[in-house]
## 1
Amino acid sequence: MSETNSPTTLPAGAAHEANAMTTPQTLGNIFFEPGPTFEALRERPRFLVAALIMLVAFMAFYLAYIQWVGYENLINAELETRSQVTEMSDERKAAGRDIQLKPFVKAIRYSVPVTGIAILLAAGAGIYLLGAMLMGKGMSYKQALSVWTYSSLPPLVLLMTANLILLLVRTPTQDSEIARGLNGLVQANPGIMVDAAAHPVLATALGALDLFALYGLFLAALGMRKVARLSSGSAWAVVLGLWLLGVIGRIIIAATTGTPMA
């Protein structure tokens, strides 16, 4: 008598079908069921639509902020804030203002986030791939890219939404606020308790302990567990190692320039 499939035995290909999700499903489920979503991304890695949503969300706040405060006001605020640290002369400030107001430079400033996000996604995925290899596990670059993109999507979308709401409620007016605001108005970290201008290094270090960033780290570690099949400890080692490198880099820049790094 032939054996029938038991309830606990899946036929060939059934496991893949059980994990399958459409792109709209992965985009929605990553917010509420990240574990199964990353399982689905292991079987069918994707990133393009999520990356485009991230870009649109970021650019929505970036462009709205410049429009609300005014491009020239932003440049003046940045120069005034920088001059308090470097004792910039009026002549140098005027020259810097003229350069920043040139159409070519203005176009570069508007387009920088597009290039920056693309580079960040590509480089981050490469480091996650390397981390998985060092831990003795295999994953494709496309899988690593899906982990990086989908772990970044929820915190970025939530943060940019909160930034837009706060911009509508209270637009910055002081130079220091205007200059910092382009990096985000929502401060969900202990860095808000420190005078950033007086203590840029401490403000940068405390600013790294951001709730949105920690949410992203949790998703990234979960993604590395599900997609690369790493242990919990190994996944966190890869994710936190990359995060610490970023924090150290920002602290070095803050110490060198005297400017707090978001």
Note: Confidence is low (pLDDT under 50) at residues 1-10.
## 2
Amino acid sequence: MAAPKSRKRREPRRPGRPRADEANQRERLLDAAIACFATDGVAATSQRSIAIKAGVTPALLNYYFGSKAKLLDAFIAERITPVVAELRESLLAAGAEPHALVGAFVRGIHGVVERYPWWPALWVREVLAERGALRDTLVQQISPQVAQLLAKTLAGAKQRGTLAADLDPRLLVVSLIGLTLFPLAAEPIWRRMFTADDVDRSALLRHTLALLDQGLGGSHAN
């Protein structure tokens, strides 16, 4: 009688940097999770729905992330935090002149959305909503690095007389967010309302900068 074949056990992943195929799989799973978050919201998204979106089993998703809470932590750490740091660096590089600073912010937001189309929808759903999963992240992480930095720099410009005296730097930041993320999030709506398929993202960017030029005064190179 032949001896039974021994089953090959899967060795646990060794600590350290994951192999390339594991890293790619993890990225694909994270992309699937983000797609579900943007469409259905974080609260309504289950690990099962993410697994279905990715075409894998829930067990595989659990293998890489362990739980939905840890997956959300990974999303914030790997997809939100680096983008916020990049936007902060662009603001610091722009200096303290209001036109350059505002232009850096507007171009930075458009650049983020160009690379990550899910950003505006997720912002509306998970930051603006009363119980949005990313609201605390906004207050604790994004705001100090971007919004408060921008407001502080604009306040300095106001003190030096290079920003109009009747502009509140804090409200100017709110206006900048309203002129960038909201039009991008509402793009499917206003395109239908005005039959505006001829307006591409570069035209929207130029329009926003021109509108801000009128409010700030002076000229802004497009």
Note: Residues 5-18 have pLDDT under 50 and may be disordered.
## 3
Amino acid sequence: MGSVDKEVELKNRKGFWRESLNPWLVRAKNNPERVAYVLHRVTGFIIIAFLLAHILETDSPVWTQYAPINGLTAWSAWSYIMHVESAWYLKIGEFIVAGSVFFHALNGFRLLLTEFFGVGIGKPVEPKPPYEAPTLSAPQRTWLYIVFVLSIVLWAFSAYLIFG
């Protein structure tokens, strides 16, 4: 490969940060797949953070014996943590976690059906510029919109249960 070819390649490369590490900078106009991709990652992080906090909270009768909370240990510390977590403003966190779980689960199921079982993927075609995947047309977008709508409906129902 000559130096001219290498210069052209480097000039046309979009950049690692812009294309790989920061998906929010990529234009998402009329691209619900990109929105679903970003939401799937963000909801995954929210679920992991919740699980870590839940493990700490559930294990509090054990670890508070070594690091008391306000002088409380064991089950009295756990009761104190439960009292703190029942505050109305922490219910907003529960609401966010519920929405994250609903979207992440439904979108994960959609991805499982698509990637492992080929549901909604049409016949392969030769790619043409601007290299938009033709398989993300009608059937896949329909499944994606169903995931969005079901997530919102279930999230609204969880709001009724959490705040009602």
Note: Helices lie at 3-12, 16-21, 32-58, 60-63, 74-85, 88-117, 138-163.
## 4
Amino acid sequence: MSDIFSHASEPDYVEAKEIGNRRSESLVIGTSVVHAFDGFTDAVHLWWPVGTESSFGEGSHVAFLRDHLVEESEDGEEVIWADIVDWQSPARIQLEWTLGQESHVPLDVEIRFDPGTDSSCRVTIAFDQIQDVQSISGFDCDWPLILARFARFMGGTLSLD
């Protein structure tokens, strides 16, 4: 895990695969499942792209707290982005994504950490698509960008050639 906090180039943006009403994005990083899971959860505040993928913007703080994924503004205002439905460290996290909007059906987001060969880890994010973006306030997550930022934080993706 010597590449953590590296200045690895950001992986190419790849549009997520569409499967019915769900989409999925996956990549392989050169670290163990345990380190990948910890980097995703314990260090989310260090890599989450709050400049574009947040309610409050730059200066806000993202964290997994108790049963939720939350964002806190610089002024201390807090919004719950998601409820944690299942937490199987270090293999899987399942979220009900609401962005604090109780008036719409939560979207299912699943993050999997699967062991690869030679201390690598495949990280996959599968998520429901928002059918009517105008019907919700907040933001529509760019999960491929979020996954790319996480991979960069963890030292970059591995070439599987």
Note: The mean pLDDT is 84.
